[in-house]
Amino acid sequence: MITRRNLIQLIGAGALAGAAAPAAADPEIDPVTGLSLQALSEGRRRGYTPVSTPNGRSLPFTMKDGVKQFHLVAEEVEHEFAPGCRAKCWGYNGSTPGPTIEAVEGDRVRILVTNKLPEATSIHWHGILLPNGMDGVTGLTQAGIQPGETWAYEFTLRQAGSHMYHPHADEMVQMALGMMGFFIIHPKDGNTDNGPPVDRDYAIMLHNWALHPGTYRPDPSIMQDFDLWTFNSKVYPATAPLLAKTGERVRIRLGNLSMWNHPMHLHGHRFWITGSDGDRWPRSSWRPEATHIVGVGQMRDFEFIADNPGDWAFHCHMSHHTMNAMGHSIPNTLGVDQSGVEDKIRSMLPGYMAMGKNGMDDMSDMAGMMGGPPNTLPMGGGKGPFGSVDMGGMFTVLKVRDELKGHADPGWYRHPKGTLAYRVSSDPSLVPTTTHKPDDQPGMPDMPGMNHGG
Ligand SMILES: [Cu+2]
Question: How far, in Å, is the centroid of ligand 1 from the Cα of 191?
């Protein structure tokens, strides 16, 4: 029987220290890599590159009689999607997603789970081969972990690969509020049968949120019309950049516990799909791609050589998934002259500006000037070196540099001479406007019996 007293002895002070988000001067964090000292030393000893969870961290462990022991605390968390937008979410150990669990094939692991939520929960170890009674499906393989209770899951890892954990209790609510995390199993003895070791190993969880404009609680009843699309529960511009030195081999492990599929697109590089929760695939199964769909409930590993210096977009290609505070049921104003309407509305709503006649490009600037509902981000992302980046949501920047100083953001890329697109003319009459009338479409054959009218 685990009591509160011997639980504190079991988990040790080190495990609890990791519950707080990493601060700049955290003595547990290596200042060069940004990874925890424990993860680095374990990686060195066991022959693997520790995982970096952008905007997140790995969960510390303690060794108890040869068992690697972790402690997850399910609880409400005050979460910031980006400055200007917060919500009461649910997660683990103070964050959504919860901290990343890292272990090695063959390890025996024990994960203690304390429930500080107002309702029962459980944890399912998504994709992991284990005894049925450790599978964490409430009602089917266990009773729910009641508020205030601590349960233990214990099993031996029989595989390697990219995995996830999430509740299997009130799934719709608990996952909609952010309860999920990674469970990465590194191959035994640094096994490289299916490919060379990577220099950098990132893990990004894809998720969606119905945080309606002006509200602070994600709405779990929404099935399709989401407001926020996140990488590790952050929207651009708050998503941390991915860094690589020129020539390094990089892996990005992508997990999808959202309600949509996400075609993930990397600029400037050809990546291979090299693995999933089915471990690192044999090389004969690797496939070169520029975009690959990560389906709901799937894990996919992207690998590439960062051989092209620059600031490269990495984003979901569903264009609504790279927007913040997506509105729905909005009338289409494209091409509509709103000049009279603007004056009328301004008499009731001082400062109102009509938007959208020529597209949405100016939306983020105008929303910034006008102000929007409280706790609501502009739809576009932020300032880039050449103006505003019109994307938010599932967007980040892969920064490839010949030199990097630690894990700090190196700033914007400086393009070598002759490698930047340039303006040729500002004269709109340089090329005549092309207009096609329906009846002069090219290539329409003159068929016998066809009536062309007038
Ligand atoms: Cu998407």
Answer: 33
Query: What's the chain's length in residues?
Result: 454
Give, in words, the CATH class of 242-401: mainly beta
* 4-197 CATH pick, 1.10.260.40, 2.60.40.420, 3.90.1170.40, 3.20.20.70: 2.60.40.420
Distance 303 CA to ligand 1 centre (A): 19
Whose tokens are 């081969």? That residue is 129
Output the CA 209–ligand 1 centroid distance in Å.
Answer: 12
Q: What b/e string do you get for 295-310 counting C-beta neighbours within 10 Å, with b at 16 or more? A: eeebbbbbbbbbeebb
- State the distance from the centre of ligand 1 to the C-alpha of 259, rounded, in angstroms: 10
Bridge partners (DSSP) listed for residue 58: 100
CA-nearest of 256, 177, 178, 259 to 220 is 177
What separation in Å is there between the alpha carbon of 319 and the centre of ligand 1?
Answer: 8
Residue 214: how many other CB atoms lie within 10 Å:
11
Three-class secondary structure of residue 400 per DSSP: strand
- Rounded CA gap, 114 and 414, in Å? 49
Cα(439) to ligand 1 centroid in Å equals 39
Query: Which stretches of the chain score pLDDT less than 70?
Result: 1-25, 326-331, 351-371, 436-454
The Cβ of residue 224 has, within 10 Å, a number of other Cβ atoms equal to: 9
Distance from the alpha carbon of residue 153 to the mean position of ligand 1, in angstroms? 33
State the distance from the centre of ligand 1 to the C-alpha of 236, rounded, in angstroms. 13
Contact 235, 81 (CB under 8 A): yes
What is the whole-number distance in angstroms between the Cα of residue 262 and the centre of ligand 1? 4
CB 240 within 8 A of CB 55: yes
**pTM for the full model?**
0.85
Domain boundary assignment for the chain: 4-197, 242-401
DSSP tally for the chain: helices H, then strands E: 5, 23
Ligand 1 centroid to Cα of residue 295, in Å, is 10
Tens-place pLDDT, residues 97-130: 999 999 999 999 999 999 999 999 999 999 999 9
